[in-house]
Structures are given as C-alpha cells and as structure tokens.
Amino acid sequence: MFQVKKIRKIQKMIAVLLLTWNKHMNKIVVLQPKSEFNGDLQYRLGYSGEVEYVDSVREYSVEELIHLAKKADILAFNPDRMGGIEKVSSRLQELLEGIPNLKGLALNTWRTDYINKDYLKERKIVVSNTPNYYVEAIATQAVALLLGCARRIFLADRRTQKRKYRLELGREPRSLAVGIVGLGHVGERVAELCKGLGMSVSAYNRTPKRIENVRRADIDEILRGSDVIVLCLSTNEETIGFLSKERIPRIKNGAIVINMSDKKLVNEKAMADSLKSGKIDQYAYETESTHKSPLEGIETALAFKPFGGYTREALGRNREVWVRNIEDLSRGKPTNMVSL
User: Fold this and answer.
1) Quick one: fold of 2-133+313-331?
2) Residue 39: CB partners within 8 Å, gap ≥ 6?
3) Do domains 2-133+313-331 and 135-304 have the same CATH topology?
4) Residue of higher predicted confidence among 64 and 234
5) What is the per-residue pLDDT for 23?
6) Can you say how many angstroms the Cα of residue 313 is from the centroid of all Cα atoms in its chain?
7) Could you give the CA distance from residue 159 to residue 191 in angstroms, rounded to a whole number?
8) Cβ(250)–Cβ(277) under 8 Å?
9) How many C-beta atoms lie closer than 10 Å to residue 117's C-beta?
C-alpha cells in the first residue's frame, strides 16, 4: 500500500512538472507539412516546443495562416506557402501583424530581401535564415543552363515542338570565354566547374578576390570579352538594375547571358531589344511569371520557374539548417541571424 501511494505521488509530481514545462514552452508554427521532415528532425522540433505544422504544400491565405499562427512565439516561414518570394512581401507583413507575441522568425531561404527589416527591428523580432545550403545546386544549374544554351539544346527543343526544327550550330565548352559577375559562394563554385570543363574564366567582383586560374577583370572587360556571362550577384539596392540599358549594348555580339540572381538585376526592355536584334543570342533566367514582361514570347528568352536550388541534397541541407535555427531560437541563442 505504501508503495502504491509513493508511485501515485511521484506520478502527480511528474504531471505538475510537465504542465509547468508545457506552460513555458515556445509555441512553434512551421509553414511546411510534418511529412517533409524526417523522424530525427521531427523529434528535435518537438523537443524545442509545442509544434504545429501546416497540412499541405499548397498556397495559404493570410487569414488561414493568422488563424494557425496567432499564438506563435516562433514562426518557421516558407514563402512558398504564401505564393513565393516575388508575391510574399506585403502578405508577410500582414501575417506578422496578426501574430502579436512573435519573438523569432526562422526563414527557410537564404534570401531576405522580401522581409521588412525596419518593422522586424521595431518589434524586436529575431530573424534567422538558411545560408549556403543551395550553393552546389545553383552552381550546377548555372553550368547546365550554360551548356544547354551553348549547344542550343533549349532552342532546338522549342523549335522541334513547333515543327520548325533546323540544325543548330553549337559551341563546345573548351572554346568558350566565360565571364562571372559576382564571386560569392555560388560564383566561386561556378568558376571551379567551368574551369573543370576547360573553359577560359574571368570574373568581376566588387571587392578583389583571388581564385586560382581565374582572371580578374573589370565589368567592361567581362561584357565586351565574354562568350557567356553568368550573373551571380546578391540582390540589394546596389545591384538592382545592374545589367542596365547602358551596359547591355556593350555586351559582346552573340553572347549568352545566364542570370542566377534576381530578374530585377536586368533591364528587361533593353534585354528584349537585344534578343530581338540578335545582339544577344540567348538569355536564361528564373521568374515566377513572364506575364506583361517585355521578354514574354521571345523565343531566345529562356524563362524557367525557380527551381535551381531544388535538389534532394540541397533540400536535406536546408531542412537541417532550418531546424537547427529553430532550436537555437527556442533556446534563446540564435544562429545565422539576419542583420536588421
């Protein structure tokens, strides 16, 4: 009898401790379905707080997400649940206004240009992002686009689909002079891959940076001397419109332009004119939509929905960094913090 009473007393103490612990646990809302995380990551998230996930990978309305997240302490944010990065800026602001007690915002992207940093700073919301998980995926995508354009594979496919096939004269990698604009993690990896394929590589970077067997050049040398130009710049006030209507005419006749950055870095009207005239052979880029763009309907404007970072390996790295950021926010020791 004494043992039974003792066990019941211990059970009550444990129950009280659990209630107290739960009361002080962070409420974490994850804008990604639970099934997208493996068992270990689910366990780690559950250990970090009281977790609620969205139920699918569809696009949600602001109202739906406010209903789900209104009591959240930490919001694990995926812009795809609100229509993608290009649509999300104003909608995210509205969502955050509906979460009064939010302390941390864990982005699952490396980009941060869609968040209102002044607003977040005013509310003292700590923000983290997921840097560098995408480097190999984006760099290999750049090289795939480069080779597809050089061998005119994309154009041959388009013309074949329209029953307008003609023999396309391509270029081999070893004959190409490649100019890389921006030597961050992606740009540096693109340079390495291009060198490995025997291409001649030059690079422009705002601050001098040495890479073995890569020639440093100013932007004018890149524009005038490259068979292929690869844009690998981050998006900010200084780089928006970087490939301007003044710079585009200086590009080498018949060159290919690969944009691995934001489409806002390129003056689309000037690019469209250069493609129509044949000044630029092909322009490959990612965008959510070409609707009402000057590039819409131009055969040599190769628009792809954003999927450069979408590989099995990159997603695995992204989930790992994202969950670690959430854990660290929950512990009050944030990592990969975004400067506000």
Assistant:
1) Rossmann fold (3.40.50)
2) none
3) yes
4) 64
5) 42
6) 15
7) 31
8) no
9) 13
Gyration radius of the chain over CA positions = 25
Q: How is the chain split into domains, by residue range? A: 2-133+313-331, 135-304
3-state helix, strand, coil in the chain (%, to 5): 45, 15, 40
If 0-12 CB within 10 Å is exposed, 13-18 middle and 19+ buried, where does residue 291 land? exposed
Which structure tokens are listed for 315?
A: 């997603």
338 CA to centre of own chain: 15
pLDDT digits (tens, 9 = 90+) for 162-199: 999 999 999 999 999 999 999 999 999 999 999 999 99
Report d(CA 86, CA 125) in Å as an integer. Answer: 22
User: How many other CB atoms sit within 10 Å of the CB of residue 173?
Assistant: 17
* Top-level class of domain 135-304: alpha beta
What is the reported pLDDT for 236? Answer: 86
Give the sign of the dihedral formed by CA 331, CA 315, CA 173, CA 242.
negative
Residue pLDDT, tens place only, 240-276: 999 999 999 999 999 999 999 999 999 999 999 999 9
Using the structure block, give the residue that is written with the tokens 């004119």. 273
pLDDT of amino acid 6: 65
C-alpha to C-alpha distances, 206 to 70, 90, 179, 211, 306, nearest whole angstrom: 43, 31, 14, 14, 26
Name the strands in the sheet holding 255-259, side by side, starting at the edge strand that comes first in the sequence: 215-216, 200-204, 177-181, 228-231, 255-259, 280-286, 301-304
What is the rounded CA–CA span in Å between residue 254 and residue 274?
10
**How much is the pTM?**
0.83
Contact 125, 101 (CB under 8 A): no
Average pLDDT score, the chain:
92
CA distance linking residue 5 with residue 291, whole number of Å:
73
Residue 150 CA, distance from chain mean position? 25
Q: What is the DSSP string of 49-78?
A: EEEEE-SSSS---HHHHHHHHTT-SEEEE-
